[in-house]
Amino acid sequence: MDYVKNAVKLRRELHQIPELGWGEFCTTAKILETIEPLGWKTYAGVEQVGLDAVMGRPEDFVEKSKQRALEEGVDPKLIERMHGYTGTIAELDTGKPGPVTGLRFDIDCVGVEETDLKDHLPNKENFRSRHAGVMHSCGHDGHTAVGLTMAQWIVDHKDQLCGKIKLIFQPAEEGVRGGAAQAASGLLDDVNYLLGAHLAMMCPTGEVCVYPEGVLCTTKLDVRFKGRPAHPTMSPHLGRNALACACTCVSEL
After folding, report:
1. Strand pairing of 41-44 and 88-93?
2. Which end of the chain is least crowded, N or C, by CB within 10 Å?
C-alpha cells in the first residue's frame, strides 16, 4: 500500500464532513468502518468514555448531529451502537511481550466557514466542507487520516512489533472536553507510552518538531464573577462591577 496516498485520500474524505465536538457521528462511523475489517478490537461511543467526566455536551446538539449523520447515510446500527457518544479506542495485541503504547488522534472540527477563494486547495480539488459554518481548519481531518493509515501500517508490520497498541480517536478536543472523558473510561490505565502529535506546528515542511512535554497540555477552568447592579450617578458606590473585575482578572492572568 502507498500509505501517503491513502492518508491523503482519507483526509480529503474527512475534510468534507466536519463535525463539532460530541457530534462526530459520521467521523466515528468512518473510523469504525475503516479499522474493524483490519482486525482491531474497538470500543465505540459510550463504551470508551467515563460518563461522569463528560463536559460540554448539549443534548439538543447531539440529537441534531445524530440525525444529520443518519440523513447522510451512516448505518443506523453504528449510530445505535454509539448510544449518543462519539469517539473510538481501538486495540491490537501483537502476541509478543512488550509495553502498551497509545497513539492519540483528535477528530472534531472548528466552527468557522470555509473560504470560497478559488485558489483554496479544497475548492480547486473539490473536497471542501459540505456543512455550512464548520470546517476542519485545525487539521483534525489530517490527524484522523494519519491514525487510520497507522492502523493499516501497524497491521501490515505486526510481526515486527511487540506488546499492545491502542489507537485513541478523541472527540471534542476543541474546548478541552473529550480527553478527560476518554481517560476516565479506564481503557487507557495500562498504557505505558502515550504519543500525540499535531500537524502544522509552524515548522518548515519536511521537519518534525519533537516536544518532550507540556506543549499540548491544558486544563479547563470555569470562573464566574458575581456583581451587584447600582445606578451609575445616584449610587455607584453601592454597586459591585463584575465586568470590571473580570477584565482586571483577564489582564492580570
Report:
1. antiparallel
2. C
